[in-house]
Amino acid sequence: MMKTYEIARVGADMLIDPKRCILQCEQQLSARLEEAAAQCLRASRRDPVLLLSGPSGAGKTTTAHKLAQSMTRMGRSGQVLSMDDYFLGHSEGPLPVDEFGEIDLESPKRLDIPLLQKHLEQLRAGKSIDMPSFDFGRQERFETTRAFALPPDGVAVVEGIHALNPDVTGSQDPGVFASAGAAFRAPDGAVLYPERLRLLRRLSRDRVFRSRPVEETLAMFASVSRGEQRFIFPYRNRAAVCIETGLAYELGLYRTLVLPFLPPDGPYSALCAELRYFLQLAVPVQPSDVPRDSLLREFIGDEGL
After folding, report:
1. Mean pLDDT across 147-157
2. Of the residues 13, 153, 217, 220, which has the fewest C-beta atoms closer than 10 A?
3. Positive/negative CA dihedral, 64, 69, 72, 73
4. Between the CA atoms of 114, 118, 124 and 126, what dihedral angle is there, to the nearest 10 degrees?
């Protein structure tokens, strides 16, 4: 069931005691992650490779690291591998394209699937692998690799949007699904749905980390949404553990970090008007109020620290 936050109720709590409200939200997410880590630890007795999937903007990277840290505290050595490092470079052959002739950034065919499957099997067998690394700036793989092996009690958390697709990972075992699946309801009953929340996260992340104009991120929204429905959500039911990563106060954060950059007109004016409506209802949150170890730092970086 989709988690829905009432914007007015969250706003009232923020006006009374913003620090307490933010702390409670973070503690609730931490509790969800600790519970998930315990479930993952039980699953790792059968398989030391845990597969973590979720749509773009779900916070998979931070979730993977927090799960690994929790499992380490619980007695197993958690390690994180990113499937992004298995992307094929532009020079390695024709990449998949969408119906508009553009490179399909969401397609599993962007991955070096044979190498990924080989490495996962080697890790399960206790062997060392030569990890590739992908340079997003050049859209090519680095020439050098790094040796990686799990310790005898180790657990590898392998995160990527296609991690639960058995055709990609070669695994039939259940995994973990992280989703920013929260919605926000306005006082008039209008709802900001989860895919919009993930878009707000990406708008902030792309501006902070990639110096990408918001128009470029908005232009990718339709393709990302299609990719979620085609390649990610069909495998959600294969997850034994699901983690909701949305935080009730984060809409106010994007009021501060995203709202000023939304274009008032242009080809995405209707989408921006929708985002603007909900953001203006939220109580502003400053980046300095976000804890240093918050999952939201994946989308806002060190701003405010």
Report:
1. 93
2. 153
3. negative
4. -160
Check which CATH number belongs to the domain holding 38 and give it. Answer: 3.40.50.300
Q: 305 lies in a domain?
A: no
Sign of CA dihedral 67, 73, 75, 81: positive
Residues 194 and 232: their CA atoms lie apart, in Å, by 15
- In the chain, at which residue ranges do the beta strands (DSSP E only) sit? 4-6, 49-53, 77-82, 129-131, 134-135, 140-141, 146-148, 154-159, 175-179, 183-185, 191-192, 239-244
Q: 14 with 283: CB under 8 angstroms?
A: yes
Would you say how long the chain is, in residues? 305
Domains in the chain, number: 1
Report the DSSP pairing between strands 49-53 and 154-159: parallel
Using a pLDDT cut of 70, give the percent of the chain over it: 99
Alpha-carbon distance of 14 to 22, in angstroms, equals 8
Average pLDDT over residues 217-246: 93
User: Beta partners for 81?
Assistant: 158
Which of 301, 249, 305 is closest to 279 using CA atoms?
Answer: 249
Contact present, 193 and 5 (Cβ < 8 Å)? no
212-217: long-range contacts (C-beta < 8 A, 24 or more apart)?
214/258, 214/261, 214/262, 214/263, 215/263, 215/266, 215/268
The pLDDT of residue 1: 63
Select the more confidently predicted residue: 2 or 122.
Answer: 122
pTM for the model? 0.93
Which residue segment(s) compose the domain that 206 sits in? 4-300
